[in-house]
Design goal:
The protein is of the alpha+beta class and about 500 residues long. The chain has three domains: about 45-70 and about 200-400, Bira Bifunctional Protein, Domain 2 (BirA Bifunctional Protein, domain 2), CATH 3.30.930.10; about 85-195, Herpes Virus-1; about 410-505, 3-Layer(aba) Sandwich (Rossmann fold), CATH 3.40.50.800. It contains 17 helices and 23 strands. The chain has a seven-stranded mixed beta sheet. The protein has a five-stranded mixed beta sheet with strand order 20-19-21-22-23, sandwiched between helices. Strands 5-4-6 form a three-stranded antiparallel beta sheet. A hairpin with a 2-residue loop joins strand 12 and strand 13. The chain binds adenosine-5'-triphosphate.
Amino acid sequence: MANNEDLLKKIIAHSKEYGFVFQSSEIYDGLSAVYDYGQMGVELKNNIKQYWWKAMVQYHENIVGLDAAIFMHPTTWKASGHVDAFNDPMIDNKDSKKRYRADVLVEDHIAKIEAKIFKEVEKAAKRFGDAFDEAQFVATNPRVMGYNQQIDEIKARLYPAMGSDDLSDLKKLIEDLEIVCPISGSRNWTDVRQFNLMFSTQMGSLGDSANTIYLRPETAQGIFVNYLNIQKTGRMKIPFGIAQIGKAFRNEIVARQFIFRMREFEQMEMQFFVRPGTELDWFKYWKEQRLNWHLSMGIPEENYRFHEHEKLAHYANAAFDIEFDFPMGFKELEGIHSRTDFDLGAHEKFSGKKLRYFDPEINESYVPCVVETSIGLDRTFLAVLTYAYREEKLEDGSERTVMKIPPVLAPIKAAVFPLVKKEGLPEKAREIFDSLKLDYMCQYDEKDAIGRRYRRQDAIGTPYCITVDHQTLEDNTVTIRERDSMKQDRITIEEISGIIAKRIKENK
Ligand code: ATP
């Protein structure tokens, strides 16, 4: 369990220094929980989007794309339940004047107990050595059993309290657990209140409430309202899916932790429409598929884990998250939800339009069930940075910071350098650069000593550096340096493109 504030700080600083992520409107001291992606960030982000799009749309004959508008008819959000129920319970500390999500305060308290269990296990593992049986220890050690019981008791109160209209139970739970404000250290709390996370604005010039529209808090509803358009015009047969990448907006109460929790963010969602009764099989299928997609990015399995929802949303009959080991510990990266026929059913009701499918195989017409895969693009970006960021001590005693970004996602695939800035080398290097750039994002760099140029490319994760030297002018060969091993080979100019292509394809 990583809880590495230091690593997060380093990633934030590195992201800024090399043009991955900037604070929004930084010259005005920034806007809280809103970020801009710089020259490297936009490339990485585009590559992640493309990697997802290919896996979902290009590789599946029965999945098609969509780009729906951010603004939607306000009744959409009534039907989806967001107007009435897209709330988080908030609580303020009267001394520090800081606002918190009441459920998160309780969850953090649980995490502290879990950390104690983790410590006990670690201690015991050391004591018992190879003979240590973790499962047995956890099941029988009185102290660990006590902690687990505490957690169960808290959860048994938390979930009903969250679902109840009366939020005083949640306040009571915070009081009973003696949770203090991390800033003031006091237990001087306000009552818990509901806070709707949707941003609203006015459409047109009239300022009355009839014109209130929302910035979409999820991209999914754009898919549901277009279900019939796409099914009909695309002649789609169930099961089929609609995929979409786009911005979503949530007025998060507590928005810290860099691009993990933002107020404006991007989602990559796919809604898969299936025959009712088969949704749990498809749910299982997509759960596996999605984990495989993460692993295919080249990030090892130990960085991921499944988390089953203990409290299901009103529309779901099964839900799992794929969690990633972020610097703040394991947290949600993607959600896979079996949404039943709730959404299409609700839109039928509110719009008065039939959203049915006639299934020729069973000669029946029905409202399809939906299995959703919903992943945060920005969280995937942070996952990639978390995995990729390395500080290495080299054999010669020097140090380097290298981003081991999976090659398929790397913002720049190759950099081309002339060894020196004279004697015809820049011209030759430019020639190579001009031909490579037609197929790959490349950089040309002739400034500073070659070692510093390598370091600059390491810092942005470029898999290959190609150097033109005097020998190049004689025999058309260059050196190619590989980012991770730093190994250099001599190859012909004709071979460069094929080597880069192979590496991207293998993604290792
Ligand atoms: P959380 O519990 O962390 O608030 P959620 O369960 O509300 O997330 P979903 O509604 O399932 O999230 O959204 C799907 C995905 O969108 C999440 O898995 C996450 O990757 C991403 N996401 C949600 N909220 C944010 C946010 N504020 N900033 C960045 N990404 C987000």
